[in-house]
Amino acid sequence: MTYQGKTIRKHIRGNWFARVRFGEKVISVYGRTKLDCYDKLKLVVDRVEQEKQNASAERYLQKLNIHVPVAQMQRAESKAKKPYTLKEWFDEWLNSYKVGRVRQATIDSFIKSFKPFHSLHDISINDITSLMLSKIIYDGNTAQGMRIPVCNLAQQMFLVAFNNRLIEVNPTSNFQIPKRVAKHEKKALTEAHEKIFISACMGNLDKYEPLLICCLQGLRKGEMLAIRPNDLCFTKNTLRIDESYDETHPDDLQVKNADSLRTMPMFKLTRELLLRHKDKDPHERIYQKYRSAMLSKRLEKLCKDNGLPRITIHELRHTFITRCHERGVEELTTQSWCGHAKGSRMTKAVYTHLTDDAEQKYIELFDGNN
């Protein structure tokens, strides 16, 4: 199956994919089924073609020494059309600027954040004021924890509309960002507590093995739940992380972004645990019987029963990163293992080069401490 010369192929994992080149950038599109992949590919290709047409028009005008921005051309075209209602503009903005560029979980979060604006759906975006939006955001029906995402959505939507000259005034230009709700302070287990945690997990692997894997490898919960036997290489002792499992989309694993996609060492204890799963179906998730809420409750009980401080699953990842710092692992290595962008706030880059010998030294260091 193809769409405008772009072929849809079957991935070794069993899902379907296609690639679209846009300048120097290559956009990958994945789908659980061939039809699902086709629908996503169509959206991406159509958007890329539109971008190319806009760029060509701008270059042609420059040759004629006529400096008319493409956005201004689009404004002239849009004047002949009926103005967008808020609902129409949200759908257009989402499909043109987000679908095919961000993960499905992010798309879902935008749709969720748009729900409070239901009373403004049929109002033209030209007639919507800052006061109208503020009432929605600070209305008692909008949960306090949702106010920032709702505000951010409004700002993104109206900024694009303003830049495309669809509105004369951006009603969100002077928005006051809602105050953040005080969050649970992130923490990590001490080395002594981590040893107790590992011992408790080893005593009942049927319940706690997924939690132990998160701690030993520094994985995010979704990354751990997406592991399949064909992600494991026991000859090289490596673990490939290229997908994430989201329970809101159980039939479609999310592809990791460029920073999070990685192959990391499989440490000694991890290898011993995962060897037990090597003969399972290579395309099936190893921990498919586990659910997020179930694991959270089990972690809470494990901590309580063993006198450990209460932590979240993500804080097991913090524990791993803390051990990296305590044991002198170079920042670049930690970033590579954890899927952080170089120079991120959590793991700032110190070195720009990592040798195989240096990585092997750290692998041995971790294997000797587990």
List keywords for this structure.
370 residues, DNA polymerase, domain 1, 3-stranded antiparallel β-sheet, 47% helix, globular
How would you portray this structure in words?
- It is a single chain.
- Helix 7 runs antiparallel to helix 8 (205-217) and helix 8 crosses helix 12 (313-326).
- The chain has a three-stranded antiparallel β-sheet with strand order 3-4-5, with helices on one face.
- It has three domains: 1-68; 81-178, DNA polymerase, domain 1 (Orthogonal Bundle), CATH 1.10.150.130; 191-367, Intergrase catalytic core (hpI Integrase, Chain A, Orthogonal Bundle).
- It contains 14 helices and ten strands.
- By secondary structure, it is mainly α.
- The radius of gyration is 24 Å and the shape is globular.
- The longest helix is centred in the N-terminal third of the chain and has 30 residues, at 34-63.
